[in-house]
Amino acid sequence: MDSSPAPGGSMNDEVPGSGPSRRSVLRTTAGAAGAGLGLGALGAGPAIAAAPGTASTVDEAAAPARQGRTMAGVPFEGRSTVRVGIIGLGNRGGSMIDLFLALPGVRVVAVCDPVREKTERAAAKVTAAGQAAPAVYANGPDDYANLCGRGDVDFVYVATPWETHFEMAKAAMLGGKHVGVECPVAMRLDELWALVDLSERTRRHCMQLENCCYGRNEMRVLRMAHAGKFGELLHGAGAYNHDLRELMFSPTYYEGPWRRLWHTRLRGDLYPNHGFGPVANYMDVNRGDRVVSISSFGTPALGLAEYRAAHMPPGDPSWKESYIGADRTISLVQTAKGRVIRLEHDVSTPHPYSRINTLGGTKGVFEDYPARIYLEPDHKGHQWGDFAKYADFDHWLWKEHANPPGGHGGMDYIMLFRLMQCMRLGLVPDFDVYDAATWTAPVPLSHASIKAKGAPQAIPDFTRGEWRKARSGVDSVRPA
Q1: How far apart are CA 388 and CA 409, in angstroms?
Q2: For the segment 450-471, what is each residue's pLDDT rounded down to a tens digit?
Q3: Long-range contacts of 125-131 (CB under 8 A, 24+ apart)
Q4: What pTM does this model have?
Q5: CB contact at 8 A, 471 and 463
Q6: Of 143, 195, 283, 303, whose Cβ has the fewest other Cβ atoms within 10 Å?
Q7: Nearest 5 degrees, angle CA 431-CA 468-CA 276?
Q8: pLDDT tens for residues 112-141?
Q9: Which is more confidently placed, 15 or 91?
Q10: In this structure, what DSSP letter does residue 354 have?
Q11: Are 161 and 87 contacting, i.e. CB atoms less than 8 angstroms apart?
């Protein structure tokens, strides 16, 4: 899974030539391109975002009957040591293992990747860190199921191509493990409902490891919003605008063309989580408000074909591909309280990196890239203020870990530190399966909306009414 750099942070998993490892593919490219994706369900017409077989309207998507009890507010079981199994050891997983090994009270007991050389490198890191050699699973694309069946794994971390995420999260929960999945957590609406139902039935947490929620700026804005600095919240925006053309056509960066091939299948926002997650937190989505609909629009798909024409030799396999994914998608998300969230996605055209990261209310606005703020009564004269002057609002995690290790400006480490802390102390996680499903729902729904010429698509209430209850989230209280 690719994650985004924080402002000024490292882009070590997104820069060509940053390392020899390639993204692992745990399903063959041929299989991913064909049956099983279920994209026909997103065909012509304004597909409403309900579970299969249920009625809905654009105002309130019907939810299927709950099969278990809610996972909202359910704590982990406390333990002195968290035993971790890692599936996928390419660019993302191969770097995140270093952070797991740097965390107190965490052991990496199993690693999995169909490319054996990657498992060997990962196992060497584990032993070099002074831990026992991990079990290795490298016997084909389905060996992850054997890792998920182990009795000595508490938490499974999934960092693989997108089309594999659902089956791996499912296997982990059925194996009795809590699971964290890089984004997006799944690619289809029925899969999102299935993960919600499975989490509730198995009593295992399934979490979208959305590291941008733990960025320093994002956590500061979150605490300021909760302190009322922005007044009544009105609007926000988030994005994944990141020029990935060179990486998507690189023969070595990804393990195969899996990411580029998604641009031949879906027109919508393929990667909403980095922008959506933080803004959803600001607005207490699933914790007092909820998102109810999405309307999406897309530009023509020209950027990847132009890049191919300029850089790829005749006969390259990419010449057989027809790109339909809009170069830029723009979506408007409405919440139950009437707030508006704008989402953007663009990885196919040249532009500087930006997640936008904006929040506005009745007392002012914050805009990122670059960070700037305007709040009444602090500012006047239509002149932006210095966001650095609000450092007192930094989250306690950033006050205790001012210079965290790892890439993306340290947000990766902060995210894993907090998650493992919650598991060790038996705390409620900062985010849950309902957040995972909500933050990912724009993937299929933006595609459906674009095909329906921007018609609004209902976003399901994955919480089945629990969103009306205020509860804590990423703006957590420091444990005693």
Answers
A1: 16
A2: 999 999 999 999 999 999 999 9
A3: 125/97, 125/98, 125/101, 126/97, 126/101, 129/101, 131/101, 131/107
A4: 0.89
A5: no
A6: 143
A7: 45
A8: 999 999 999 999 999 999 999 999 999 999
A9: 91
A10: B
A11: no
